[in-house]
Specification:
The protein is α+β, with helices and mostly antiparallel strands and 77 residues long. It has one helix at 56-76, and strands at residues 6-14, 17-22, 28-32, 44-48, 51-54.
């Protein structure tokens, strides 16, 4: 069975820290930017083997889902 990876969305960046939100649990944590790859808001990070890695595929999936939800809301008006 494949291990479940922790995934985080970069909520915002402030004063040398990234504010990360666990996608599954919604838990918020602060991580020093020095411990992360170069990130920007809305990036998705995977935590594995004590490292954070950017997950571009997950980011694209989540942005597409958000766009679809927004389009549905616009059609309800």
């Amino acid at each position: 069975m494949e291990e479940e990876l922790e995934k985080y969305a970069v909520d915002r960046i402030e004063e040398g820290f990234a504010v990360l939100e666990n996608i599954k649990t919604r838990e918020i944590k602060l991580v020093e930017l020095l411990l992360l790859p170069v990130v920007k808001e809305k990036d998705i990070l995977v935590y594995k083997d004590d490292l954070y890695m950017i997950d571009d595929e997950e980011r694209r999936k989540r942005l597409k889902l958000i766009e679809e939800k927004l389009a549905k809301l616009k059609n309800l008006e």
